[in-house]
Amino acid sequence: MEGLLRFLVAKVIVLALASSFVSCYDPSPLQDFCVAVDDANGVFVNGKFCKDPKYVKAEDFFTSGLNIAGNTMNRVGSNVTNVNVDRIPGLNTLGVSLVRIDFTPGGQNPPHTHPRATEILVLVEGTLLVGFVTSNQDNNRLFSKVLYPGDVFVFPIGMIHFQVNIGRTNAVAFAGLGSQNPGTITIADAVFGSTPLIMPEILAKAFQLDVNVVRFLEGRFSSKYDRHY
């Protein structure tokens, strides 16, 4: 009996510790950073301020226009139409958002990552080659698939991924993301078009390129060129 009692006490302690760990878990960040301040003048929060519930209306949970194709006249031949908390205020704290992606033939949503969200994509029109690359710990394996209308593919949170229209007609896809503000880091734009620019010598060594090639790429991706979002 005494042994059983000790076992039950130990089990209760373990469960209590586990519960405390769960209850103390920090919420995921909803923007790139949220710097702490000591005074009451800070106006930013992790997410958005909440409207008084008695003033909430149906329009706070609604938007329209996803039946309209986005403008794909840019250097990558695609357009991403975001439906996040900035477009539907009612998404605040709900942990979900949506995008429509339009592609011209040969257009692509270039390699990028969403630091705060997993993405699940469904193809509605056309043919896409999609894929993601795993982390260094998994030897940067590429998982890719050709999608046809009705096909669905998942891109795990934080993984570098891409979509390319390999068909002869326009393509349209919709994707759900597991954050009200998933964020997007387009790899080429971030590396070669940062503000200020990363020193060419650093990138030349990292990518094993001639420094003049890096300078050329930084010129191509600097702010004077149109960027893809």
TrEMBL record:
InterPro entries: Cupin_1 (IPR006045), Germin (IPR001929), Germin_Mn-BS (IPR019780), RmlC-like_jellyroll (IPR014710), RmlC_Cupin_sf (IPR011051). The keyword Zinc does not apply. CDD domains: cupin_OxOx (cd02241). It is found in: Secreted, Extracellular space, Apoplast. It holds the Pfam family Cupin_1. Residues 64-215 form the Cupin type-1 domain. This is Germin-like protein. The lineage of its organism: Eukaryota, Viridiplantae, Streptophyta, Embryophyta, Tracheophyta.
